[in-house]
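Shipment paperwork, digital attachment
Item: protein structure file
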Amino acid sequence: MAKQAWSHPHSFIAMQATAVHKDNELTGLKMRWVMDEITSADLLYDAGKAKPDSVIWKKLAAEVMANVLGQHYFTEFWHQGKPVKFGNLPPEYRLLREGNKAVLEFILPLGEPQPLAGQRYTFSVFDPTYFVDMTFAGEKSLHLPDELARQCRFTLKTPNPDAALQSYALSLDKADAPPADMDLGRQFAQTVTLQCQ
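Attachment content:
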C-alpha cells in the first residue's frame, strides 16, 4: 500500500445546525454532520448493504454518538459570557448514507431551556486537536424555523489564523498531537451567533 503523507486536518465534516425551540425558549440544536468520503469509508464498509433502519446502522450510530458525547458534543455554547450546559443524552440521533458519505444527525439538547427574546447566544463546534476540520459552509448552513426567523438571526464568523499558525497546523502529521494548552482547534473554530429581538 502506498504511504500517504498526512497533515492536519485529516477529516472534514460539513455541518448544518437548526435551532430547536419550544414556547419561545431555545431547547437545543439539530445538527447534521456530513463526513468526507475517506472518513465515511470505514463506517459505510461496516454498514455494508444493511437497510437504513437496521440493527447495524443503529449500532454504528450509537458508536459514533458515544464518541461525540465523549467530546462534549465537540461544542461550546455561551450566554452572557457563561457556558451553557448540555443535556447528557441526545433525544434523537441517527446515522445514514448519502452516496459515499456518512451523515450523523442528532439533537444537541441544552441542559435547561434558554429564553430567546432579547437574548444573544454564541457557539462553536470544533475538534480541540484540529484533527477534524468542522465547518459551516456559510450562513446558509444555519437554519431557523419560520416562527423564529421573524425575531432571530444567525451570523457566522470564520477566523483568519495567521500564516505561521496555518503553516504549523499543516506541518503536523497523524502522530503529532499539538500541545493541549495550544488549543489548536479553537483557533480555527468558527463562531456562530444567535441574536434574538
